[in-house]
Write a structure and sequence with these properties.
Elements: H1 3-26, H2 30-46, H3 48-80, H4 86-96, E1 101-105, E2 108-111, H5 112-128, E3 136-140, H6 145-156, E4 160-163, H7 170-179, E5 184-188, H8 192-201, H9 205-211, E6 216-219, E7 235-236, H10 237-241, H11 250-254, E8 261-266, E9 276-280, H12 281-289
Parallel strand pairs: 3-4, 3-5, 4-8, 5-6, 6-7
Antiparallel strand pairs: 1-2, 8-9
Length: 299
Amino acid sequence: MNKDNQQSVSFVWITAAIAVAVMLIILNYYALYIVPLLGAVCLIIIYWNFLVRVWRTLPRDAILIKNYSIYFIKIRIWNFLGCDTYAKIFKRNVDKHPNKIAFKHESSTWRFIEVEQFSNQIANYFKEQGLKRGEIVALYMESCPEYVCIWLGLSKIGVTVALINNNLRADALAHSIKVSNCSAVIIGKEQIDALAEIINTTTDDKLNDLFTKSNVYIKNYNDTALINTPISKAINLDSELKEVSKSAPETDISEGSSKDQMLYIYTSGTTGMPKAAIMTQSRYIYTQNHLNINNLFYI
């Protein structure tokens, strides 16, 4: 609204207010109504533009308020049902249909029970390695069933997983690992060269300390391929998991809360260095359910 139009509107409101005031005086009600009425008119005139914006954005804001209300109601329902973490919900699915296919990837298929058992091995192994609730592990792998199993397993013991974009290289990769403040790094065989490159070139004390203490684990690779490479101290995760229990870490899972941090999800880094968004248990469950209460146990 331009200045002339605003002045015209103000003139109309003032004229209307005066007319109403005169009528109230004639009717002897001015003592009760004239002051608050004039005050209301003045406020409307002063905040006219703001009130117009509020009115125009009201439908959008109403939808937002509705969605957040549903979200908080769902969180309370999940807490009441004892399903306040993704691991607990997934376990209910496993109990319902253990042999149903959870993943199809290339020529392999993974049943729910297989995902559960492998993720339990991940949880038990890294708990044995001394990882504690609240610590962070960077996961740098191609998309595959094991990728999901690893972050699911780590979440069972309360470890937050930083999901490093698998296309990152050089400085962007080093930056993402560094800012995650991770205690360990898990990579796939496809990422060996990329990680070896930053191990060779980094001068950062924090990264050097991480890489020289055998805190790098590799999934799906051949030991002999790493001889005389910067990543030769990496631990073969496949070999380590062979004798690890497939039983669920029930105590750790029961201690989980909807407020726990679950994942760090990074931006692409196309307009600068990647930045991490924190995904809590409740937020992840919420996004997976798409505000549909019927999907509560079918994530």
